[in-house]
Every structure is written in C-alpha cells, then in structure tokens.
Amino acid sequence: MIQVLLIDDDVELAELMRDVLTKYSIELTAVHTPNEGFEALENKKFDLVLLDVMLPQLNGLQMCSKIRYSNAAYKDISIIILTARTELTDMVVGLETGADDYVKKPFEPRELVARINAILRRANAPEEATAAQLPVLDAGSVSTRSGLCVEVALEGNILQIETQRAQVRVNGEKLVITSMEFELIAALAQRPGEILNRDDLLDEVHGTSGIYTRSIDALIYRLRTKIREAGASSDFIRTVRGRGYSLVGQVNSLTST
C-alpha cells in the first residue's frame, strides 16, 4: 500500500481521511504536531506527506521548508500542502518552500487521491525506460511532452530531460527534484530556445494561468541551484527580462514517442 503521513491537528479529519484513503489502497499515518511529524519521518519510510498549513509550534509552510532544506534522508519526499485559508500567499509560499502541490480544504477525497497518485507516478517513473528506443524528430515537430527526451549542451555541460522516466540529468548525474520543478523544466524542454512567459509556464505546471506567477521565479531559482550543485558550470535557463525564461544551449537531440 502507498504510505502517506498526515500532519494535521484536526483529529476528526484525520480519522475520516484514514477511513476514506484505505479504500484507495493508501495507508494513512496521522500525527498532530510538527514534532510528531519529524519523529514519524525519522522512524518510518513514507511515500508522501500531507501537511496542513495551520499547525501548533511551527506552521506547515515553515515545516515544509525545514524538510526540504534538511540533510535528512526524507528531505526529497513528496509533499502536498493542505490549506483552509483562501489567501493566495499560502499557496505561493508553499510552492516556493518546496511543496509538490497544494489542495484547498474542504476537498473531495477523489481529488486528493488523484493528486497523490499523479505526484507518485512522476516520482516513481520506471528507471528501465530508455531514450535510445525513441525516434529522432525535428525540434519544431514536437507538440506534446509525452515521451519527450531532450539533450542540451552548453559550454561543455550536458543537460538531459526525459519525460518518460520523469528524470533530469546533469553531466550524467540524476537530479532529485519535485514534481513541479520537473514539470517546469519539461515545459521549457518542449520548446528549447523559445521564450516562455510566467503565465505560460504556470499553465503547464499547474493548469492555472495567471494566478501564482511569481512562484515560477522560485521554482526557476531552485532548478538553477540544483543544476549548479550537480556540477554544471553554465546556466541552462536564461532569464529574458520582462518576457520570461528560455532553455538555452546546443540541442544535441530531441526525441519523442
């Protein structure tokens, strides 16, 4: 079963969610404070965390940041932010601190299950798929990211994006990135060399154009940081002031199923 950790101080909601998610082959472990959450993460391997914003001691956004920027084994776990508040700030900050997605309370159980499954499909994409099996296409002929594989060279560095495996590699080293970070770089890889504005990118990442556009900047920053930390000496993502972002470099190969 899928192992999910819920960190929420609403005891009744936790019990209800446990009963509902069990029907979808999801085993829910519920704790009610950040300290209990960190303890659970230390003692058990989970596939995903459901993290409420309004928590005692430490709010959910702060906890999300602590998880992401820790050196713990669980720092790259998938995280969905739960919020009953209507302020856009919670959602923007949640994405900026490293959450993979957010869900507004109250929510339909099937919506939550769909979000969980979508994130875990990307996180657990099979390693055995191979780009060598894909036919080579002209860059202008690719209209979908399904099965897309792009290799870009820049100043001796190689960046590879493979959507079939939901992987990004820099000079052969696989990056550990969130699902939203992957969706963002995959959108850029679909049209290498073209400038995409924040609204276009946000629509690709979350299907909601024009609302949380500044969160794109935070995702770009995190991607650049991870690419540099993997050893790249060049910036593959170029900022075009006032217009947006572009994936730059020499496209060595662009393939698609």
Automatic annotation (TrEMBL):
GO cellular component assignments: cytosol; protein-DNA complex
Domain of life: Bacteria
Modified residues (4-aspartylphosphate): 52
Database matches in InterPro entries: CheY-like_superfamily, OmpR/PhoB-type_DNA-bd, Sig_transdc_resp-reg_C-effctor, Sig_transdc_resp-reg_receiver, WalR-like, WH-like_DNA-bd_sf
DNA-binding feature ranges: 150-249
Pfam assignment, any one: Trans_reg_C
Domain Response regulatory positions: 3-120
Location relative to the cell: Cytoplasm
Organism: Litoreibacter janthinus
Domain OmpR/PhoB-type: 150-249
Record keywords, A-Z: Cytoplasm, DNA-binding, Phosphoprotein, Transcription, Transcription regulation, Two-component regulatory system
Protein name listed in UniProt: Two-component system, OmpR family, response regulator RpaB
A Gene Ontology BP annotation from the UniProt entry: regulation of DNA-templated transcription
GO molecular function: phosphorelay response regulator activity; transcription cis-regulatory region binding
PANTHER family the record matches: REGULATOR OF RPOS, TRANSCRIPTIONAL REGULATORY PROTEIN CPXR
